[in-house]
Amino acid sequence: ARLLTSAFFGAWIEEAARSVRAERDELTRLDAAIGDADHGTNLDRGFTEAVRALGDRRPATPGAVLVLVGSTLIRKVGGASGPLYGTAFREAGKALGEAPEVSPADLAAALAAGVAGVRRLGSAAEGDKTMVDALAPAAEALTAALAGAVREGPGADGAPEAGTPAVGRDGHPSAPEDGRDGHPGAPVDGPAGAAGPDGRGLAAALAAAAEAARAGAEATIPMPARKGRASYLGPRSVGHQDPGATSAALILRALHTVAAR
Ligand code: ADP
Ligand code: MG
Ligand code: MG
């Protein structure tokens, strides 16, 4: 199995910081609609500081990397999301213990522990229009993708269109010049069903987690908010994507990005 070092986790945080920086104004725009227009700047400040803290003193273990990131986010982000993301990373780091390298299954357990920490602190359930709506399905998807690959082998990871005949989406045979061989839905990480306990399998499982987070964030649009500032708006929060669910999806996409390198 592919083992993940503190360098991998440091690369994740750097990629998350890049992505949060790139989407900062969009996150703030979402928070302007149903909150106080600070989510993008809050998170950009926190992740920038987390990257700096890791650069000053890169901890030797994955667990210590995540605990340092969490502590930095708690100190620097503020608002509701600072303590929540900070707790997520700290709990995930504690779950990894002091091992110098961790497995994909350890990563899945750590993500689940992080989500449990967010739920405990914020007492939000799925459907309340918060970051939990992106984080919880991502943690479940990661665990399921890795477990499915181990139990049932290739093809068991729920990848779309595995085993379908070589026809295009419209049901007609692919044109001969179609180099993708009639599998438009195949994941970019490799052939459908590539999830196994190796590096490629981890990337495929994280692709499923990132997609679950993206879909979970999008699903917050029709929800009325029941937690956080947006809940003050009641039904007027309907029709807007939750900023924290959106940033959670970015952070999980960053994890897939570094695993796919
Ligand atoms: P603030 O609302 O204090 O300005 P941010 O704008 O940084 O903080 O973060 C807002 C996000 O925090 C929301 O979009 C939501 O996803 C998340 N959030 C707020 N309250 C909770 C809660 N109780 N549980 C989980 N997530 C929450
Ligand atoms: Mg805000
Ligand atoms: Mg605020």
UniProtKB/TrEMBL annotation:
Superkingdom to which the source organism belongs: Bacteria
InterPro entries attached to this UniProt entry: DhaK_L_YcgS, DhaL_dom, DhaL_dom_sf, Dihydroxyacetone_Kinase
High-level lineage: Bacteria, Bacillati, Actinomycetota, Actinomycetes, Streptosporangiales
Transmembrane segments: none
Organism annotation: Planobispora rosea
Keywords, comma-separated and alphabetical: Kinase, Transferase
Cellular component per GO, a single term: cytosol
SMART domains reported for this sequence: Dak2
Protein name: DhaL domain-containing protein
